[in-house]
Amino acid sequence: MTLLALPRIAEVLSRKLMPRRPPSVSAWADAERVLSTKGSAKPGRWRTDSNPPLREPMDCMSARSGVRDVVLMFPIQDGKTEVALNTVGYCMDQHPGPVMVCLPGEVSLVKWVAQKLSPMLEETPAVRRALTSVASRDAANTRTLKEFDGGQLYIEHAGSPSRLKSTSVRTLIVDELDEFAGNFVGGDDPVDMLDGRTSAFPSTYKRLYISTPQMRGTSRIERKFLEGDQRRYYVPCPHCAHEQPLEWKGLMWTPDASHCWYACRECGAVIDEHHKTAMINAGRWVAENPNAREGVRSYTLNCLYYPFGLGPRWLDLVRMWLAAQNDPSRLKTFINDRLAEPFEDPAMRAVKHNVLRDRGEPYRLRTAPLGVLACTAGVDTQDNRLAVHVVGWGRGMRAWTLDYVELPGDPAEDLVWISLVELLTRPIEHECGALIRPEATAIDAGGHRTEAVKSFCRPRVGGHPLRRVMPIFGAVPNNAPVLSKGKLQDINWRGQYDKNGVTIFHVGTVGIKHHLYSLIAADDGKPVESRMIHVSDELPPEFFAGLVSETYDPNRNRFIKRNGVRNEPLDTWDYAYAAAHHPELRLHRRSKADWDAAEARLLAAVGAPVVMPVVGELPPPVSHGTSPQTPKGSPRAGWKRTW
């Protein structure tokens, strides 16, 4: 009898003595996780089978998984936050170590703790047992710090760099990644700083990035998704068994939106929504970019995968889509929150740097084509350079980029300003043989070199080396005019504004960018002679990318810079356009007679025949800001205009 029991005894001992193998995250959640009535539509025991697409992303965060980075580009109400909570609970109970959860701001942090984390800690016994303290006044149990056996849970927000420093964690969870600021005041990138928190665990770290996307080109979650293996959830057709991801373009509906169905892209059969549960249960994740970096998995879903009872039905989504068609903000919300796709403003689709580069025209830089009758310059100020954009203007405010140069040097020193003066006073050769130079220059006074710009622009004895030079700031209001009325900045010894001091102008950059992008989009397909925006094919590729480096976000009513692209060509074009609105120049107000007179002066400068304005037209503008002389007693006596 004893001999017969020995194998059984050895088996029991071996199981007890062997190292503990923690379960997967999904297995732990099915066994331990309890959903609270405070934040769940279906409270009670967690069941991964009720939302099968979540199983694989959760298991990638398990201790035995070789995956290091997991990216979830999911719609709202599809369980992505539950993946984060299950990972937190799993780490506290089965795989202890330092964990950090990071939210975009303090408000979102408070809501996440109150609505998501605290109910899980209260309702899940396994997690509650792991806490070293549940007392609200204990230093080990605060809103932003939870100590548990073998580790700590840090809850931080990306509102300042100090929140993301001096903490080493093995597991990093970043929620609503696209809501993070582009960078901190000091220039640091918050996501790079967060990634650095796991550097102390090079072989065991886990990082989970969760978000719905925002703007195409600037979306952080989109960029991380594209860096991964781009997994989509393929489901079999109930009629032909062909596997395919559910896509919004596959959803069909009647004209009155009273009925909808999905069309199989293989056999074309009608798939009603009641097939959805069986299709999802039989589905699987398929990597569409299998050559991605090892250890990085990225997943995306859309609203067509909502389980019954956990999101809108297909027909409800159709009606939401139709209601949003005439409202860009609602359309963006639907595309971001329901389709989990980055939004691209329709007006921005024609504004592509590669398309713009293909429109490059064969004219030489610093040579003005025949249509150019005046030119201005815009200067962007950086800590180590000046970016200079010279733009030529013609009838109807047609624009030609005549030159784009970056001058290296700190604007706090004189050398780079000397280079700027030399560049802008050097004449530009016109195709007719005349020489022209910028008639007004706008210089960005924002950033760290404001006083240096004001000092350069300040009026001086003997006149300024540049014509109509003005320091500018970007206006804060989104509806600000192109060029606001100048404001005096200097104070005299009486404490009054010095009329002979520097004057600051504010520029409505949002309106200018809308204007520029609309012109670029309207030029698509037009012949060269009909275009409003002209660029030389001698300009470098980075210029074209920089000129359209920002996308419009209708929710914020702001333009947002695309990641990794420098926007100085765009900013300097804006400033050159604002310089054309200088109160002594006002190119945008010139009439046909004014442009005729400008053309006549150019031709006269090279001795070409001049066609004088006909009787009754306005007299040609005079230079240097003087007013035309009107004979006394004429119908325009007393009329004054600045040219």
Number of domains: 3
Using the 3D structure, state the CATH architecture of the largest domain: 3-Layer(aba) Sandwich
Helix content: 25-40%
Count of helix runs = 18
So what's the overall shape?
Answer: elongated
Radius of gyration: 32 Å
Reported for the largest beta sheet, the result is:
10 strands, mixed
Detail the poorly predicted runs: 610-643
CATH class of the largest domain: Alpha Beta
Please provide the count of β strands: 28
Q: Strand percentage, roughly?
A: 15-25%
CATH topology description of the largest domain: Rossmann fold
SSE-based structural type = alpha/beta
CATH H-level superfamily of the largest domain: P-loop containing nucleotide triphosphate hydrolases
Cα-to-Cα separation, first versus last residue: 115 Å
Overall average residue pLDDT = 86
In short:
The protein is of the alpha/beta class and 643 residues long.
Q: Your description of this structure?
A:
This protein has 643 residues and is an alpha/beta fold. The protein folds into three domains: 20-337, Rossmann fold (3-Layer(aba) Sandwich); 353-589, Nucleotidyltransferase, domain 5 (2-Layer Sandwich), CATH 3.30.420; 613-643, no CATH class. The protein has 18 helices and 28 strands. Strands 3, 4, 5, 6, 7, 8, 9, 10, 14 and 15 form a ten-stranded mixed β-sheet that branches. An eight-stranded mixed β-sheet has the order 24-25-23-22-17-18-19-26. It has a three-stranded antiparallel β-sheet with strand order 11-12-13, with helices on one face. Strand 17 (374-382) and strand 18 (385-393) form a beta hairpin. Helix 15 (509-522) crosses helix 17.
